Structure formats: C-alpha cells, structure tokens
C-alpha cells in the first residue's frame, strides 16, 4: 500500500471527530509476548482519551494496566472500497481516583457485556493517527 | 468482561466460516517496539491461512515478515449490541515461491489500494479463536 491519491492522512482533530462517531474499537496490546486484540465499546473523554469499562479481574486489565497500547477504530464500505481508520497510541491505566470513577459512572461507557467489579480503563491519546481511503478501482 | 451467557466461544470451523464472510480485517503487530494495527482486505487460502496483498516495500512487510502476528475480523451491531470477533494468531511471511505467487495472482486478494511491487503476505492460522456476543441489556 502506498501513500498516494487513494489515501488521505487525517489530522488529529479529524481523527477524534471520527472516533466520536463510532461505538466500538479494538484494543491492541501484548499478551504473553504475543500480539493480541480485543474489540470493545468505548467513549472519548473530555481530554480525548479513550475510556472503556471492563472487569477489574479481566485478562485485558491484567495485560494492559500501565502499558502502552494501541486502540483502533474504522469504518469501511466493501461496496465502494473506501473508508477510514484511526489509531490512538498511548499508555493505558485503570482509573483509580474515586471522583473520576464516579464521574465516568455517569457519563462514561457502559460495557456491552455484563461486568463484575467494573473498572474504567483509560488510554491516553498521546499519538493519534488516521487515514481515509478513497475509492479506487484501478487495481481491480 | 466475563465469560458467561452473553458470550459464546466459537470453535475453529465457526471462526473460519465467519472470516470467509468478511472482506476486511486488521493485522496486529509490533512496530518499533510499540503495538500497531492496520486494516487490510484479505482472503482465506485453501490451507485456512490469511492472505493479504501489499507492497513489497511497505512498512507492514518490513515489520511482520517472519514475525508472529494477530489478525482480527469482527462484525458488531450497535443496535443490538451483539456480534462476533475472530482472531488468527500465527507467523507471517511473504509468499516467495513463484508458483504460489502466480496462483494467488489468480485467486488471491486484490488490494483496495494501488500497490507497487506487490507481494502476497501469508499469516498462518496456527491459533484461531473467536467469540460471539449475544445481546444483553442487563447492564444498561
């Protein structure tokens, strides 16, 4: 894949606007020295960080708390072969301040799955990259 | 997230059947010691490996040739909060046998983007895991 007319690099504001439009993304991390990925629903917080809600005892929390992870969301149309993808890269951490937890309990994401001992996991948006793929049929 | 009634673990055959239904997935790998992810279109080959078509000089090929990567595909409905995700984990490698390259040129994937010096990249389906998330509204 080449950087050319078919690809437009998105700036940070465009990326964040697109992220705010979709409910689901994927946490990309390392688990037992292997690449791992888990789809999760999320919200963007006021500081543009990505916030998830999951179980305190989940494998995800165990693997990513304190680590740098990537978080990806995208929307593509197979019909037009076009779409966009955005990747946030930054440190992940459990929200442990009670006031923050309380605030997110009101405004933050609710997991699509039942959660026991729920915690909010925040991914700082230290690096935000994205690209839009425009329709091209030149390669078949 | 918990393993419970809302989640059904998919067996390998179910996973491969679902993978065959979607055109797009995401390669999950490590780039410069950081987690990285790239959406790509793909096909499943006869041996159930995942095959992509990309540029020989792409960052992706440079980063993953010979490495163990994950490949994820999913389909979710925000309306019903249900869907599935499948992850293939295995070694990635450029297809360098001329006969295999020729065969894939006929039957393999075509990139949604223009590709220069195209190569096929194969991800062995050494580990195939998946889960289906059934609709649940119990947590709001």
UniProtKB/TrEMBL annotation, chains A, B:
InterPro entries: Pyridox_Oxase-rel, Split_barrel_FMN-bd. It holds the Pfam family Pyridox_ox_2. It comes from the Bacteria. Keywords: DNA-binding. One of its GO terms (molecular function) is DNA binding. This is DNA-binding protein.
